[in-house]
Write a structure and sequence with these properties.
alpha+beta; 8 helices; 36% helix
Length: 337
């Protein structure tokens, strides 16, 4: 069990990403998010999100050397994952070291924050407001609850290696299919010439079966080409970068200890709220980095509810060589015409 004090935690919203692409998309985000040179992850997939705990793998390996031989290769699981899910709402939990605030909604862990000691009332209220938990008149902190642990996590825990194993081996499958398409007909025609006088009737029957297979392959190829054309047409209707590309550009513009707290993208307008680490990031540095990415323009600084957070609104530029439909005049003619 890995103490919550040693873990960095985040919840990644995957709603806009197709299910089959989520593992690969999460891998790209984890590379930008982790602060450790040798990270180790514990990942729980909820309905449309991924809960991720990260810790220093080198430190944990050094600690394993002091364990009995039976425990040196035991699976590392964060202590939060072994706690029994409570009813919906915000709560304070006593950890192995420090105190953790959790917010649960519809049976899912939506947010978590750790303190080395019991937080002040103002800190707990700020946490509740940040996660959108409605508050009545709160005069004192809720009771710090002792955790109710269980033998297994409430949902399966995966590692980064498990994510890599989930990616389909498309390239190997493609080479195998090409080999079969080329090698089988070639070998068969050579065999037919060699046995033509001995088994003419049998060869004709097998040729008929092979022709049927070839026709199926041709039909499948035509359907695939049609699908590719349809996908290309749909892509031309969306001139802007994908959410993953935008997230990657924003992540590269942030300091290493900053995180994206809110993300709102509509049409070509993007609004983000950034939470700093030990120090509040520089608005000027982030604005400059976003501008240099060649993906954003009209970057505006907004006021954020949290004094340690920065808020920005910007216009997303279309991909190179693509002109959005709204850039055309009302009568359908290009403005350049």
């Amino acid at each position: 069990m890995v103490a919550r004090a040693l873990c960095r935690f985040s919840r990644f919203d995957l709603t806009s990403i197709p299910v089959k692409r989520r593992a690969q998309a999460l891998q790209l985000q984890l590379r930008q998010w982790t602060p450790f040179g040798q990270p180790e992850f514990a990942i729980i997939f909820e309905k449309n999100a991924a809960l991720v705990w990260c810790w220093d793998a080198a430190w944990l390996q050094a600690q394993r050397q002091n364990l009995p031989a039976l425990w040196k290769n035991a699976e590392a699981i964060p202590e939060t994952a072994l706690q029994t899910p409570p009813a919906d709402g915000a709560r304070l939990i006593q950890c192995l070291d420090g105190v953790e605030a959790q917010f649960w909604q519809q049976g899912e862990l939506r947010a978590s924050r750790w303190w080395s000691a019991v937080p002040e009332l103002s800190e707990f209220i700020a946490f509740c407001r940040e996660v959108g938990h409605p508050l009545a008149q709160v005069q004192q902190l809720p009771e710090v609850l002792a955790p109710i642990t269980q033998a297994q996590p409430w949902l399966p825990v995966m590692t980064a290696a498990n994510l890599s194993a989930q990616n389909p081996l498309l390239e190997q499958a493609m080479y195998a299919a090409l080999f079969l398409i080329v090698a089988l007909p070639y070998g068969w025609y050579n065999l037919r010439e060699y046995q033509l006088d001995r088994a003419m009737e049998g060869t004709r029957a097998e040729m008929k079966a092979l022709t049927g297979q070839a026709n199926s392959l041709v039909q499948a190829r035509e359907a695939a080409l049609k699908a590719v054309d349809e996908i290309s047409s749909r892509q031309r209707l969306d001139p802007y970068p994908t959410q993953i590309e935008l997230m990657t550009a924003v992540a590269e513009a942030l300091p290493s200890d900053a995180t994206i707290r809110e993300w709102e993208f509509q049409e070509n307008k993007l609004r983000i709220v950034i939470a700093g680490g030990l120090e509040v990031p520089s608005r000027a540095d982030i604005t400059k980095a976003l501008t240099q990415s060649d993906m954003f323009t009209d970057i505006q600084n907004l006021l954020a509810r949290d004094t340690k957070a920065l808020s920005f609104r910007m216009t997303v530029l279309p991909k190179n060589g693509i002109q959005p439909e709204q850039d055309k005049s009302v009568d359908g003619k290009d403005n350049n015409g």
